[in-house]
Amino acid sequence: MEEVKHILDILAQAQQALKQQNALALKDISNQTVHCSSCFQDPGTTTMAVVIYALSKLVERQETLQMKRWPEATKKIQSYFALAQQAVQAEKETQFESYMQRIRTTLTSLSVNLKPYMQDLLQKASINKASKIYEHGISLGKTAQLLGISQWELSDYATQKDDPYQATINTRTRAETALEFFV
Asked: How far is CA 177 from its chain centroid?
């Protein structure tokens, strides 16, 4: 029951942030969704994370991209979010997943000229969210399967990220630090 409430909250927050054209809020909501995705490991919540992240990027760049149909698309996406909420409340997981996929389709059909950009954006969003799910301890294979990307794409992206725990210090600094313990 707690999971359902959490998903409903995320959908409501995403609707509000999209209505306000708040890219930062959408990005934060997407990050919250990653935790949900790693817990449930289902396609619906995973697609929700990707779609919300992609929306944050579109809101961020809407003036640069000059999307003429953006207002109509946001209304359509808002209605899909509302329908997804109803599906979650009715515990109809398949319908929820369907509405998330419809949002994804709406994004790719915004403009013929932007279609390659949108597909690339959604692919990069998928890889980005997959790496975050992977960081939550879900296996590389399962994460790649959830997002429909190859394990190679995911492992390539995951290894590119800076890991602060792998940073090493030089020998001199290490020796000085060790000597401080005895002084």
From this structure: 41
